[in-house]
Amino acid sequence: MNKRALWIGLVAVAVIGLIILISKTSNKPEPVPTPSPSPSVQYEIIGKSVEGRNIESYTYGAGDEHLVFIGGIHGGYEWNSVVLAYNAMDYLETNKESIPENLKITIIPSMNPDGVYKVLGKEGRISEKDAKPTEETIPGRFNAHNVDLNRNFDCKWQPESTWRGNKVSAGTSAFSEPEAQAIRDYMLKEHPSAVVFWHSQAGEVYTSECEDGISDETRNLMKTYAKASGYKESETFDYYAVTGDAEGWLARVGIPTITVELKTHENVEWDRNLAGMKSIINYYGK
Ligand SMILES: [Zn+2]
């Protein structure tokens, strides 16, 4: 082999190597943007989704009484509950003086980030501009294992459950999914005074229980949020049988929890939910 042929060979190998390297680099998932919350916010990554996206919590205030608000357990299908949670964070950030001293308020804006990504194609914070028609967002209700996370908790858990008459996967066991594990571990560590889950769309506020009956505290919370927001009061969700729901498990471990169903899938219904959130803050604030 002459020198010229050797050089051509070497150059060819280098070019092929470079092409492989570039194609591998461009196949990498988009980097998750690093949030830069202000110093007055306590930021924590409480877990990771199936596809490795962060499940984040943002905490405002430093009191002993702890309230937690959670958006997006049903991912991109209920994207407006995620946007509502981000808007609530903005509100708490700019209205720090409105947080009573005895309170600490945590927002977990997006409990099912893979479900958001699946149908909206966006990482991190989303806004009303990202909205898509409801029929297109249905697959985003589930996590990357196609599990309905609000059927994966340890309250009457069954491997299959229902959603509007359809069978849905509830996971291979209670807490098989990392998103449900993150919430379980956070709640058992923090044991908050109350939890609110934002969903859509029914325009109602529900209590929770797990075969032990509804506690007075939970009923009071439901009535408080319903009255302030104008959503309908509801003792129990009885449109179809639900097993393995997060709210029921929280009730079982003694944490009063309510479910707020926004009326539509279209917007965050801000005024109603701000009034609801403030009513819960007032209920516990001193
Ligand atoms: Zn939901």
Automatic annotation (TrEMBL):
It comes from the Bacteria. Keywords: Hydrolase, Membrane, Metalloprotease, Protease, Transmembrane, Transmembrane helix, Zinc. Gene3D superfamilies: Zn peptidases. The active site is at residue 261. SUPFAM superfamilies: Zn-dependent exopeptidases. One of its GO terms (molecular function) is metallocarboxypeptidase activity. The chain crosses the membrane at residues 6-23. The keyword Zinc applies. Residues 18-284 form the Peptidase M14 domain. One of its GO terms (cellular component) is extracellular space. The keyword Transmembrane applies. Its cofactor is Zn(2+). One of its GO terms (biological process) is proteolysis. Belongs to the peptidase M14 family. This is Peptidase M14 domain-containing protein.
